[in-house]
Design a protein that fits this description.
The structure holds two protein chains of two kinds. Helix content of chain A is about 0%, strand content about 50%. Chain A contains no helices and eleven strands. Chain A has strands at about 5, 10-15, 20-25, 35-40, 45-50, 55, 60-65, 70-75, 85-90, 95, 100-105. Chain B is mainly beta. Helices cover about 0% and strands about 60% of the residues of chain B. In chain B, the strands form two sheets. In chain B, strands 2, 4, 5, 6, 9, 10, 11 and 12 form an eight-stranded mixed sheet that branches. In chain B, strands 1-3-8-7 form a four-stranded antiparallel sheet, with no helix packed on it. The termini of chain B are far apart. The chains are: A mainly beta, B mainly beta. Chains A and B meet through β5 and β10 of A and β5 of B.
């Protein structure tokens, strides 16, 4: 099973700032990496699939990059609704999720 | 508008069988373009894929759960179900049903993408001693 680690565990930022979230895989997953956002009491929401493709309806301020074992989710200018938990998921082998990064208001 | 709704008992006794149903509206589970499946989330294990299927008959289960998990389909009612046998406290979680696209990968022109574009709201299942 491929293990994913995410850093940092918590990111404290202000609205309007840029957020950079990292995800590292225990072995190469090619470009098969997705990102989800989850808010309390809700199901996750797909943001990015295949490393850099935005899902339907996702604003352009969300972008993904990387390949192999190292991936990044960037949010160019944080909106109030972006403060949430973010998970990466590899979908190269049997899918696994990272433990999450919490983006909180500073 | 596609909607998925989980239903089933919220409390199951240890060693018994967990059974959940996902009712789909606004879309057909018979579509050849999508896979459907189950994901669970617990404080201890985080998010975890359980299994997925496509109407054509292709079904995949998480390797470490194989033997305890069964996904079945009722196309007449447009729903699918999950059974997990011999449950323990480790099976306590919020269970989500989900949809993800079938994509072309290598020689498989209908491979599961596992990039979930629609989720149910989730249902909490607690395993009691």
């Amino acid at each position: 099973e491929i293990a994913l680690t995410q850093s940092p565990a918590t990111l404290s930022l202000s609205p309007g700032e840029r957020a950079t979230l990292s995800c590292r895989a225990s072995q190469s997953v090619g470009s098969y990496l997705a990102w989800y956002q989850q808010k309390p009491g809700q199901a996750p929401r797909l943001l990015i699939f295949d490393t850099s493709n935005r899902a339907t309806g996702i604003p352009a301020r969300f972008s993904g990059s990387g390949s192999g074992t190292d991936f990044t989710l960037s949010i160019t200018s944080l909106e109030p609704e972006d403060f949430a938990l973010y998970y990466c998921q590899q979908h190269s082998h049997w899918p696994t999720f990272g433990p999450g990064t919490k983006v909180e208001i500073k | 508008q596609l909607q998925l709704q989980e239903s089933g008992p919220g409390l199951v006794k240890s060693s018994e069988t967990l059974s959940l149903t996902c009712t789909v509206s606004g879309g057909s589970i018979s579509s050849d373009s999508y896979y459907w499946g189950w994901i669970r989330q617990s404080p201890g294990k985080g998010l975890e894929w359980i299994g997925t299927f496509r109407f054509s008959g292709t079904t995949y289960y998480k390797p470490s759960l194989n033997g305890r998990v069964t996904i079945s389909v009722d196309t007449s009612q447009n729903l699918f179900s999950l059974r997990v046998t011999s449950v323990t406290a480790a099976d306590t979680a919020v269970y989500y049903c989900a949809r993800h696209p079938a994509v072309a990968r290598g020689t498989n022109y209908r491979a599961p993408s596992f990039a979930v574009d629609h989720w149910g709201r989730g249902t909490l299942v607690t395993v009691s001693p």
